[in-house]
Design a protein that fits this description.
alpha+beta; Arc Repressor Mutant, subunit A; four-stranded antiparallel β-sheet; 7 strands; globular; WH-like_DNA-bd_sf; WH_DNA-bd_sf; ArsR-like_HTH; Helix-turn-helix transcriptional regulator
Length: 212
């Protein structure tokens, strides 16, 4: 199966509305999700949720692990529960195929080699400040719409997903600096973005500024 065929197969799996809801719930969760919790979140039976969750695993969209939720071990502790989390990797579809990722890598390499980090950060911050949705709406929803998958960790707003993951893996200092500047621009004066990586997610976290 070609890369394009594989991407189309993923689209086919996600054509089912229930599977999309289950995928979004698991992908946005800060930790692993069990069948009971997933079923309750989308309002279906455990068996129906299990069927669709396993279809998402078969498509490579979710990954699985097993653990005992009670924390007990040994005889009488029960069978380990099947737990789901977002799978690593990316799936993109373009018809006809495009190579924006290749262009992004070339541009990042040129910027890094030319030492234009500060110029990139200034442009990213300005783009965030000029974003009309950020100025008019709820920052959490703005971040969710941009693919960051925000979630609350106590008083800290963490970001489960990095929209620039592939480039950040190859050019971490450049892309993470750009991302921080973009989020500083998007955030209102009430928020303080800072480098505070979420395991498996974004390098930036946000906290509310002290108004006193």
């Amino acid at each position: 199966m070609t890369g394009e065929d594989s991407a189309f197969a993923v689209l086919g799996v996600l054509s089912d509305p229930l599977r999309r809801r289950l995928y979004r719930h698991v992908a946005a969760a800060p930790g692993e999700v069990g069948r009971d919790a997933a079923a309750e979140a989308v309002g279906v039976s455990r068996s129906l949720a299990a069927f669709h969750l396993d279809k998402l695993v078969e498509a490579g969209l979710l990954a699985v692990s097993f653990r005992r939720l009670s924390g007990r071990t040994g005889p009488g502790s029960g069978r380990p529960a099947k737990m789901y989390r977002r799978a690593e990797g990316e799936h993109t579809v373009s018809v006809p195929p495009r190579s924006y990722d290749a262009a992004g890598r070339l541009l990042a390499e040129v910027v890094e080699n030319a030492g234009l980090d500060q110029a990139l950060q200034s442009a990213a911050r300005a783009a965030g400040e000029a974003d009309p949705d950020a100025a008019a709406g709820d920052l959490v929803e703005v971040l969710r719409a941009r693919g960051y998958q925000p979630f609350w960790d106590g008083e800290t707003l963490r970001l489960r997903n990095c929209p620039f993951h592939a480039l950040a893996e190859e050019f971490p200092a450049l892309i993470c600096g750009m991302n921080l500047a973009l989020l500083q621009g998007l955030a209102s004066g009430q928020w303080a973005p800072a480098m505070d990586p979420c395991p498996g997610g974004c390098c930036v976290a946000l906290s509310k500024k002290n108004s006193h």
